[in-house]
Amino acid sequence: xxxxxxxxxxxxxxxxxxxxxxxxxxxxxxxxxxxxxxxxxxxxxxxxxxxxxxxxxxxxxxxxxxxxxxxxxxxxxxxxxxxxxxxxxxxxxxxxxxxxxxxxxxxxxxxxxxxxxxxxxxxxxxxxxxxxxxxxxxxxxxxxxxxxxxxxxxxxxxxxxxxxxxxxxxxxxxxxxxxxxxxxxxxxxxxxxxxxxxxxxxxxxxxxxxx
Length: 211
Hints:
The structure is a single chain. This protein has a single domain (17-166), classed as Methylamine Dehydrogenase, Chain H (7 Propeller). It has one helix at 28-35, and strands at 4-8, 45-47, 52-56, 60-65, 70-76, 81-89, 94-100, 103-108, 114-119, 124-130, 135-140, 144-152, 155-163, 172-173, 180-184, 205-210. It contains 1 helix and 16 strands. The strands form 4 sheets. It has a 4-stranded antiparallel beta sheet with strand order 1-16-15-14, with no helix packed on it. A 4-stranded antiparallel beta sheet has the order 2-3-4-5, with no helix packed on it. Strands 6-7-8-9 form a 4-stranded antiparallel beta sheet, with no helix packed on it. The chain is globular. The longest helix is centred in the N-terminal third of the chain and has 8 residues, at 28-35. Strand 12 (144-152) and strand 13 (155-163) form a beta hairpin. Residues 1-45 have low confidence and may be disordered. It is mostly beta strands.
């Protein structure tokens, strides 16, 4: 196995992606402004330059100039839809969008072209890219971490689906140690009308995945 999985019980802050905020501060004013736009996703973004952001919505993604507060381009995500996570290879200008339907499109950040589509696990929430290893990650709630290698800026291959834990769908990537951190827990069966049951006391863990 390329990656090993060591589990540690930990308490504290979880990892989250930078919010899509025009001024970069994730303030309530800017969050409210973006949330008022029906096709914007206020919580998922990726920076490419000092003044540019890429934001996801249900069927497309948007290239924004955050200083001018202008929408520059809007490109479709088909065949994928309902994205949740977005990360970027800044050198090769590639975006990695984790989407429903077990797909992660790889997108040219300059022209919007989908250059590849990687098969990932179910219930993805986050993606990340490690420039040193040229690996992209998708954390999936079904209990696997999909690892995709950037063979070239136009070719991507799935290296491994690392077993993690059901509910481990968000993550943080440490670019110094190259470890991936995934919070997870056990849950009771949901009651009628609930999307998810209550977390079982003492079941919260941080999974550490690395070479």
